[in-house]
Specification:
alpha+beta, Glutaredoxin, four-stranded mixed beta sheet
Length: 132
């Protein structure tokens, strides 16, 4: 049996709403949230929207692209949009000063760490474990 996490409930909600007229969706969502509470999963409700969105994007063949940089880099955003021009995608930009410089790019399950903090971590591993 599948673990009852936010992804599980997100997928169930997606399947329930698939093909339902818009005027019925609110009622179904309300009943679904009540059902989740009866299942003992009210703590997962805050993560439900994100899980639902991920399921919807995956089932509809839309790429989820997240770019995390220490500061805004408009050229990088423009370049990635150009690379994905033939593919439908949702682009999310996050600013995280902790990565120091460069960027971390996540496209669905593919993660590319081109950040300065990532390079520093790689160097630390190489020094500790002797990995080239």
């Amino acid at each position: 049996m599948r673990k009852r996490d936010a992804g599980y409930f997100g997928e169930l909600l997606y399947d329930l709403l698939d093909g339902v007229p818009k005027e019925e969706t609110l009622k179904i969502i309300r009943h679904f949230l009540e059902w989740m509470e009866r299942q003992g999963a009210p703590a997962l409700v805050p993560k439900l929207l994100e899980a639902y969105q991920e399921v919807a994007l995956a089932k509809e063949g839309i790429a989820k692209v997240e770019i995390k940089t220490a500061r805004e880099i408009p050229e990088l955003t423009k370049h990635i949009k150009h690379l994905l021009k033939d593919k439908e995608a949702v682009l999310e930009i996050k600013i995280d000063p902790g990565i120091i410089g460069g960027a971390i790019i996540q496209i669905d399950d593919l993660r590319i760490d081109a950040s300065l903090q990532g390079r520093i971590n790689e160097l630390k591993k190489a020094m500790v474990y002797g990995i080239n």
